[in-house]
Amino acid sequence: MQVYLVGGAVRDELLGLPVTERDWVAVGATPLDMERDGFRPVGREFPVFLHPQTCEEYALARQERKTGPGYRGFETQYSPQVTLEEDLLRRDLTINAMARDLDGTLIDPYGGREDLRIRQLRHVSPAFVEDPVRVLRVARFAARFAELGFQVAPETLALMQAMVVNGEVAALVPERVWREMERALNESRPEVFFDTLQDCGALEVVMPELHWQAADRDALRAAVTLSREGNVRFAALAGGSSESAVEALCERLRAPNPYRELALMCARLKDRIEAANTLDDAGLLELLDSADALRRPERFERLLRACAARGGGMLTAEELLRAATAVAAEVTLEPEHMAGLRGSGIAAALRRARIERLARLQRERRRS
Length: 368
Fold this sequence. Notes:
The protein is of the alpha+beta class and 368 residues long. Among the domains are: 1-114, 2-Layer Sandwich (Beta Polymerase, domain 2); 254-368, no CATH class. 52% of the residues lie in helices and 10% in strands. It contains 18 helices and eleven strands. It has helices at 8-15, 31-36, 84-89, 112-118, 133-144, 154-165, 174-185, 191-200, 203-206, 214-226, 230-238, 243-253, 257-274, 281-290, 297-310, 318-330, 335-338, 344-367, and strands at residues 2-6, 23-27, 40-41, 48-50, 57-60, 62-66, 74-78, 99-101, 106-107, 120-121, 151-152. The strands form three sheets. Strands 3-4-5-2-1-8-9 form a seven-stranded mixed β-sheet. Strands 6-7 form a two-stranded antiparallel ribbon. Strands 10-11 form a two-stranded parallel sheet. The model has no long low-confidence stretch (mean pLDDT 92).
């Protein structure tokens, strides 16, 4: 058995980036060999094992054969006869198809190191077109490495366009689209993910509700500077659409609730939030209630950041809304003011007290 470090760890080390995860390939081994050496099996679709000490993943060298449409339409073949070069050939991009042996020697049969030098995201082989997830992965790598000057190779973009035309991209399931998009949202240049999908025609297939425009790109770029949280960035991205379009997009992608809630709230309230300086005291309280700002101030803060991103990174009423949230949340009713009140009467009295407090805040702000 021969063991090789493969994939992203080799790529990132050559780029001078931190290596956070290491994956290994075992050549010339069987599952029985691995278990005999103390490795614990964890792979469901093909043999993957955890090292008994480091818990790093070791996969048996394998090949794949296309058997049907979509990214699940593959038959995995593994045996001690599969070579390292054959295993690397099935990978998506040349920069991910390099390996190092235990002595540190680089094995680079498909030109990955040269593509790192010239900053190209290039497919390894024509078999690239067999797996539609690769369209999403290339777009995500384009977002990850955009600041380093990487671009999608023209011939790879042409294959991605062909995968859209032949219907392969339409076979992607929502969960996989969401997983790749969520990871892209956490990159430093997430807008490049959507640019790349638009360039190959895949965006209107996997997210037809998202009409990607310059304003969305600007909002996403602004959101990157305002927050590291994926749900804030998603809300800034989707919040420029109508509430019904955002609902449809979230339904299509099966977006988790924290993402769905914030995006819908941004679409519904962004105009009122931007114009909060023009609201009277009752209107200001109504806005805070609509956003559930008093009970969930942390989510309201995320909403403000998403709305600020839609405004190019600035929110004119931001200071007012934060102050209004703080003072309204402090309002309580003294026992003597609650005497004889029940249910809706207490709620109405509390509302009046909060409006009075917001009116005082507005007067103080005008005087200052």
